[in-house]
Inverse folding.
């Protein structure tokens, strides 16, 4: 007598709408990797978004209508029409405005919603704007970029609704950025170049003044600070008033930092709080040892005395000691730098990120059941 023998579970069709006003390099790599893995993905983004040509070549680009608020009727209508026309089963909205509009657009539709959290900024349950976005009951999963955010969001979500996924990074990306028009300072022979990249204007938590005070305390003529990015006037005044004034070089903002990193010896992240900074990944890709505070986020990237050095958050003395210690030990700098790049390649690749997100998608869209075939055994 023939019976039915189970042979496995059919793979569900994953129809995904990925929404971001402007994609960064990691997000571009993610959606292209998901497409190569068989996900039927559409990317709703601005025509000016980086990587649009690659999205068009992959057949996944949809130009978004402009939206600058969390409620834009024309954009909501566009999202809803796309979801229905493409039979979307998952909407993956990366920024807060995209997420809020996507929630409005998908009411009464059988769609799963995936959100993203890349900041430790506090979520306030009493603020209605959060209920229009990340705290909305229609959000099914939240992807967290570092351990601190993952643990913090457990105050609002059951752990099974969260995914810890470091944004993917590939060392060659820094080489693809348009060459900077700036040049590295002409330092004396035997100099130790300490480099910091930050958007610190109006953001004291970036710790730039802490780093400047540490530089003044180094009292070592061979140690120079190369600073790339924005800063407050108070920071410039602080730099000019101390004994290290001639050894502190403000170079302003530059889109491509790889050529500066290649000529540096140590990377410093003085932040009092931070996420998972891309500049630190770029420094690791160039085999630079990284000094950072022992704070959630950066310590997901940097391991103390393995790929860099931690210092006590907010301590000028501890930061000064860390700079001096690495400046005095070239062999340690080379060892930490090599191990940092190895860790970057091993733990933070774009392929690893894509695999995690694909598993999340598959968990949201249930299989269509068991495929059966006759069993000829009697």
């Amino acid at each position: 007598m023939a019976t039915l023998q189970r042979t496995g579970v059919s793979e569900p069709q994953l129809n995904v709408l990925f929404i971001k006003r402007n994609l960064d390099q990691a997000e571009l790599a993610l959606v292209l990797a998901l497409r190569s893995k068989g996900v039927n993905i559409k990317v709703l983004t601005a025509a000016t978004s980086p990587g649009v040509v690659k999205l068009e070549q992959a057949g996944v680009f949809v130009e978004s209508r402009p939206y600058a608020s969390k409620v834009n009727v024309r954009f909501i209508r566009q999202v809803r029409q796309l979801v229905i026309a493409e039979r979307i089963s998952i909407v993956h909205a990366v920024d807060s405005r995209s997420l809020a509009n996507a929630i409005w657009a998908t009411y009464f539709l059988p769609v799963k919603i995936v959100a993203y959290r890349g900041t430790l900024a506090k979520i306030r349950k009493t603020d209605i704007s959060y209920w229009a976005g990340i705290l909305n009951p229609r959000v099914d999963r939240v992807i967290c970029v570092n351990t601190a955010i993952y643990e913090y969001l457990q105050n609002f979500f059951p752990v099974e609704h969260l995914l810890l996924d470091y944004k993917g990074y590939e060392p060659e990306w820094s080489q693809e950025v348009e060459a900077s028009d700036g040049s590295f300072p002409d330092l004396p022979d035997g100099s130790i170049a300490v480099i910091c990249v930050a958007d610190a204007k109006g953001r004291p938590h970036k710790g730039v003044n802490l780093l400047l005070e540490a530089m003044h305390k180094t009292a070592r003529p061979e140690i120079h600070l190369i600073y790339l990015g924005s800063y407050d006037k108070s920071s410039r005044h602080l730099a000019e008033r101390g004994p290290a004034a001639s050894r502190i070089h403000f170079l302003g903002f530059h889109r491509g930092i790889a050529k500066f990193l290649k000529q540096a010896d140590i990377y410093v992240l003085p932040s009092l709080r931070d996420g998972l900074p891309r500049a630190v990944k770029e420094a690791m890709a160039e085999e630079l040892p990284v000094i950072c505070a022992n704070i959630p986020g950066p310590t997901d990237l940097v391991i103390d005395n393995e790929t860099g050095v931690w210092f006590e958050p907010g301590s000028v003395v501890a930061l000064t000691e860390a700079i001096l210690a690495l400046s005095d030990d070239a062999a340690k700098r080379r060892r930490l730098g090599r191990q940092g790049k190895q860790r970057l390649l091993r733990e933070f690749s774009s392929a690893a990120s894509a695999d995690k997100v694909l598993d999340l998608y598959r968990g949201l869209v249930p299989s269509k059941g068991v495929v059966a075939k006759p069993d000829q055994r009697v």
User: Anything to note?
Assistant: The mean pLDDT is 90. The longest strand covers residues 192-199. The chain has two domains: 13-168+349-365, 179-347. The radius of gyration is 24 Å.
